[in-house]
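FW: tagging you since you asked about this chain on Friday. Here's the raw sequence from the shared folder, copied in full. Didn't touch anything.
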Amino acid sequence: MKKQLLLAAILTSATLATPVFANSITVDFSLPKFSTQDYNSPYVAIWTETKAENNSLLLWHSIKRKEDKWLVDIRRWWRKVGRYGEMPADAITGATKGSGDYNVILDIGDLTKFNLMIEVVREDGGRSLLRQAIDTTKSTKYTLKADVEVGEITINVGK
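HL: got it, structure written out here
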């Protein structure tokens, strides 16, 4: 009996000491409604930045044409990722979305520490650029304050 309890205690402590390596994160955010006649849905880009590389996780833009000349307006994303011609896969790109609440689950691969970048830009509107340092070795919830073009953002790592 003592051996079983000791084994259970060892297994439990080993499990609790093991870091949580998330391969996805959940991002909840809202796009506010603006009372203007010429409202245009914003472009939204979410990507990771590390010292070694930058990777797009999500890109909502005008998909009416194969080449979207307005992508350069997502300035930080364009400088770090977009201009190099490596457009994100179809699974993570989509048309612009109107105001509302959104929940996206993003595949981060094997990254453990990185900056998560979120940029929201609206034609004839404002621009919001937010950054959050992420550590996926522990389950954590991050909250970013609302900005001009985006409401409060919640990022969940782990279970």
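FW: Confidence is low (pLDDT under 50) at residues 5-21.
HL: agreed, and DSSP finds two helices and nine strands in the chain.
FW: great, closing this out.
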